[in-house]
Amino acid sequence: MTMEDGTSKSPGYCGDTDGDYDVLQWDTREDCEVRQILDRIADKWSLLVIALLDQRSLRFSELRRRIEGISQRMLTRTLRQLERDGLVSRTVYPAVPPRVDYELTPLGVTLHHTIRALVTWTEEHQNEIAFARAAYDARVTAEQEAAERDSAERDAIAREVLAAGRANTG
Amino acid sequence: MTMEDGTSKSPGYCGDTDGDYDVLQWDTREDCEVRQILDRIADKWSLLVIALLDQRSLRFSELRRRIEGISQRMLTRTLRQLERDGLVSRTVYPAVPPRVDYELTPLGVTLHHTIRALVTWTEEHQNEIAFARAAYDARVTAEQEAAERDSAERDAIAREVLAAGRANTG
DNA sequence: CGGAATCCGCCACGATACTG
DNA sequence: CAGTATCGTGGCGGATTCCG
Predict the structure, then answer these.
(1) B100: Cβ under 7 Å from strand C?
(2) Nucleic strand C near CB of residue B79 (< 7 Å)
(3) Which of A32, B31, B100, B155 is the most buried (most CB within 10 A)?
(4) Residue B154 lies in a domain
(5) How far is the CA of B44 from the C1' of D12 (A)?
(6) What would the pLDDT profile of A98-107 be if each residue is shown by its tens digit?
(7) C-alpha torsion sign, points B1, B2, B4, B10
(8) How far does A45 lie from chain B, in Å, by closest CA?
(9) Is B135 a member of any domain?
């Protein structure tokens, strides 16, 4: 089964973090649950799959069509990961043609609620972020142009000095 | 300035998503804010930086020491990204030696609160996830071993049949 | 001290082909 | 229809070097 990723060893109990939690304990490079979960839901497709399954259970081909752009490989992998984490359940109907349904588990539903909070935050602040980016980019390009002007000016002065020097010694 | 990533064009208004939101509008491949923010906070270091800055403002070298494992390149890049998005502010003290302080903006603080919800969810459900993984892995290896046993059995039968055939024709 | 620029290894992901 | 197997590649991130 090749096990392309590596999460089999060391459950990595991060210790309890009541109240004044120790940041380094839940996100350092040691494999902590937080990072794994975050990486899972934040990868290219998981979030979308979870969101789609929130409405109702879907079969493989339905997910494939709705997402449009995902390869069958990545859809399979994404669903396997979510299934392994207990966020999505997979039911196979032994029939011809084969049919496989996916749906959110209760745990997956609670995660989706939490995710929604993040999505909501983004929706509420996306204009602030866009504004900040525009301001930042403008500032950077302005400084850049100013630096170029200064450089050109120094070049001009240097050339003048050189010319004056040649006039004196020549 | 090379601009290694590309978020300069098309702000990508995802449309309002009141109530029954359209999932495909906030996470499809078109560059929507949600994905960008999620990718930002979920990348290898941003979340940790945000968490550390939540306590108090820190200078570059302090962050570098506390994180331990991050390269100066990635720390710089991470901070620049966060600064560009208006989540972190950067203040330079013109002195010798140079000193640069980073701190969360009000916007960054609100994001940190939202993130905390996700972290809390993970902390509350990490044992369920660990259990689900263990169960899944156990099931997979069990099926695998069963398949191997079946294969060996079929091999044995096939050999017997072959031997019988030779006995008849020989 | 706080970067910027450069080179490079690795692997996550996509495209393709095959199976039950 | 719902996958698995294989190969090629772009880009992320680390190591190193140089600058103000």
Answers:
(1) yes
(2) yes
(3) A32
(4) yes
(5) 10
(6) 999 999 999 9
(7) positive
(8) 9
(9) yes
- How close does chain B come to A163, measured CA to CA in Å? 34
The pLDDT tens digits for B22-75 are 776 666 555 577 888 888 888 889 999 999 999 999 999 999 999 988 999 999
User: Any idea what the CATH number is for the domain that residue B90 is in?
Assistant: 1.10.10.10
Cβ pair A140, A78 in contact under 8 A: no
Token pair 């339905």 is found at A62
Strand nucleotide closest to residue B71 (CA to C1')? D14
Distance CA B157, CA B154 (A): 5
- The answer to whether some atom of strand C lies closer than 7 Å to the beta carbon of B73 is yes
Closest by CA to A123, choosing from B96, B134, B106, B17, is: B17
What secondary structure does DSSP assign to chain A, as a single string?
---SS--SS---------SS--HHHHHSSS--HHHHHHHHHHSTTHHHHHHHHHHS-EEHHHHHHHH-S--HHHHHHHHHHHHHTTSEEEEEE--SS-EEEEEE-HHHHHHHHHHHHHHHHHHHHHHHHHHHHHHHHHHHHHHHHHHHHHHHHHHHHHHHHHHHHHHHH-
- Distances from the Cα of A81 to the Cαs of A36, A42, B48, B124, in angstroms? 11, 13, 24, 20
Q: What's the one-letter identity of residue B16?
A: D
Residue B22 included in any domain? no
Task: State the total domains in chain B.
Answer: 1
Domain assignment present for residue B111? The answer is yes
Least reliable range by pLDDT among A25-29, A113-117, B73-77: A25-29
The boundaries of the domain holding residue B43 are 33-168
Judge if pTM exceeds 0.85.
no
How many angstroms separate the Cα of A10 from the Cα of each of A30, A76, B133, B166? 9, 25, 12, 54
Q: Give residue-wise pLDDT tens across range B113-141.
A: 999 998 899 989 999 999 999 999 999 98
